[in-house]
Amino acid sequence: MKKFCRLLLASLTLATLAPLAHADFAEGAHQFKTDVKTAGKETGHAIGNAGRAVGHGVNSAGHAVAHGAKTAGHAVANTTRHGYYATKHWVKEKT
């Protein structure tokens, strides 16, 4: 009879505590899911911000290169034009 009472007491204790353990596990699982979702969103936002920063930097660098190339092209054109007219006037003076 003692063994039966101990077994009955143990099974009642487990039956009473099982829903509490399950509720605690469910709450922990929900919190884990929420944390993972939040971390994923933050990671996605960080990657998006980094991509935009890189794009902006590349865009600025591209504009700087284009401006430099345009300036160099104009300088070559002006020098060529001045050289052409200087040569033209020199040839006219010699003839």
Task: Give an overview in words.
This protein is 98% helix and 0% strand. It has 95 residues and is an all-alpha fold. The chain starts with a helix and ends with a helix. The mean pLDDT is 82.
**Mean pLDDT over the residues:** 82
Would you report the number of β strands?
A: 0
Which spans of ≥5 residues are poorly predicted at pLDDT below 50?
none
Query: How big a fraction of the residues is strand?
Result: under 5%
Backbone CA Rg: 41 Å
Largest sheet: none
Q: What letter string, H or E per element, gives the SSE order?
A: H
Task: List the total number of helices.
Answer: 1
Question: What is the 3D shape?
Answer: rod-shaped
Through-space gap between termini: 138 Å
Q: Structural class, judged by helices and strands? A: mainly alpha
Query: Which bin fits the share of residues in helices?
Result: over 70%
